[in-house]
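Usage

Read records sequentially. Each one opens with the input sequence:
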Amino acid sequence: MATITTFSSSLKFWFVLCSFSFLSLKTLSQPRVNHLHTFCNDQADRFAEASSYDENRKSTLKYLRATTSDATYLSVTKGLNADIVYGMYHCRGDNTKRSKSTCRICVRTATTLIAKTCTNQKEAIIYYEECMVRYSDYSFFGLLETSPKFLTSSPSNFPDKSRFGDTLSSKMDKLITKAASTTLWPEPYLAHDQQRVNDFDSSYVVESLVQCSPDIDSGNCTKCLRLAVQDILDCCSRSRTAQNFLPKCLVRYNTSSLPLNDPTTPKPRPSLGVIKGNKIFERTFTAVITASALALVGL
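and closes with the structure output:
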């Protein structure tokens, strides 16, 4: 009997150990998402705990969290009249092409954090590098909004003599045109590519991406992207890495150095992108910083 007890205990130990190892490996294999900023609009109306708006907000975020199987964009409306809540999520199309679970994990994480951070504001938006989630008591569908925005760049710059600023401006013009004129699903209004650049005594690869929310039209997509690019050119045109997130579009690029004698030229990735909307709308938000600025990752 003693031998049987020892054997059973050993089996139990190894079962628990294997289960723990499996769960650890599963956790490690999940895509990592990077929180950038949470904006809670303190100028918007407030709602009371357990109110109809509170319940509709919970229902909206729950629906977004549960409906991230394939789509990179989803909008939803819950409630009526003064208690109505409009919500949406939008994932980066290039990440979704690599791994659909990235969008799902990002939206689930974002919907949880935005509810905890913006406890009673009727309007909020949260930015991750991989997705954005927002809700409001007004319908923002189809509107071009230029705030709140989140822009960040690397401290590492190209030298003054570099032509990188001109290269970046030209490249973004082409990508904006491509994104705004493409109507392919499931990632409309998306364009990204890689390009090798030889610049004085350096050689590097530029990976760039532009993307608009599918609820605006082509003209407003172009306007949004041009504003986002201009922000970058005005503040940090020599930065080796930068990204600018607006409610209805995003722009990002990353550079990596190459030896001058490296003959390798990266093959451009396919670009996608389009949908509708027609109004221009701006609102002012108060930023709530819930995490330190994270180092930029490659596209």
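Summary fields computed downstream for this record:
- The mean pLDDT is 80.
- The longest strand covers residues 202-212.
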